[in-house]
Amino acid sequence: MTSSAPPTQPRRSDATRAAILRAARERFAADGYERATIRAIAADAQIDPSMVMRYYGSKEGLFAAAAEFDLRLPDLTSVPPARLGEVLVRHFLARWEGDETLVALLRAASTNPGAAERMRGIFANQLTAAVATFGTDPTLTARRAGLVASQVLGLAFTRYIVRLPPMVDTTPDELVSWVAPTLQRYLTGTPPS
Amino acid sequence: MTSSAPPTQPRRSDATRAAILRAARERFAADGYERATIRAIAADAQIDPSMVMRYYGSKEGLFAAAAEFDLRLPDLTSVPPARLGEVLVRHFLARWEGDETLVALLRAASTNPGAAERMRGIFANQLTAAVATFGTDPTLTARRAGLVASQVLGLAFTRYIVRLPPMVDTTPDELVSWVAPTLQRYLTGTPPS
DNA sequence: GTCTATAATTCGATAGAC
DNA sequence: GTCTATCGAATTATAGAC
CA of A190: which chain B residue's CA is closest? Predict the structure, then answer.
């Protein structure tokens, strides 16, 4: 929340911390968890490597801080039901193009168990909660959320990680047109018997 | 030297080579490229680490040999057009469950540029070629193949890598029912205007 | 708060005996 | 073909001077 904050003035180290986190996100996104070294991150942030350890304790602690993420999903109850898929794809694409944190998380989740756990938490909690706003069966809700995650993460994986040419060259609007009906059916479609 | 003799008999080292490749696939699939060490792979195969170097030259060479992969896509021209999506999902799921090579490739592609390049090659060549059997516009064909890849790789990523609970718990048959219509539309649907 | 120096591992790769 | 020994490099993390 806002703070019952005493006259706490911003510490001078806050700027340094922010620079470290920014560099960390870039490196983790570009190189993955194990290839992104504390030395390289510190060099990018133009500070000494030991400062990273001082501020974040360990490489895992640094990643945990750098990979903090909120999907910022819109309130789905205020979206016309027929446009749920479109709104959701567009939101994810915008969220991805504008913030490399999710790319860092995605890449790291492939090899780092902690990152995978965090990814599970984000989608299990935030996405499933959003889907649960219209639907009663918990099992079906979880499955719908999982299917949406499979398409959305596959989109990110092929576009930002593996960089399949046709997925890189296609504009966000075109991707939305193709993928929206998929999410729409996963969200609201009749379950197959 | 000795042999102009093509009746090549199996060398004794072939068994060793096969054991190395099997262990390599397991380790690359479980740990990714950088965490899978030559030492660990050799230990699994119960041989000396230096033998791996002798046979495959380098870690990259070992991965290149271990990640050789063929999607073994069926001939899509002999499939009823309305069932293309179903046939394709079922094929991919079977191919994935039965051979961990693709999981190894998927995990490694997240952090290793060479593995990503191989992944691009597999989907750009094999999958695009299969899609090209029905369709004339090369750009549209590539896009259809890319979209199929995004859903199929997203399925694999959420089920085998991140292990999202709802995607792990769902049976292959149920997954086919949900995902088949998606692939069907990506393959044969009218392009959005 | 910042930096130097270094400990303690671990890895890929090489050399060479047998 | 197989193994021992080891090199050289890179990493995270710590200790301590200033």
Answer: B178
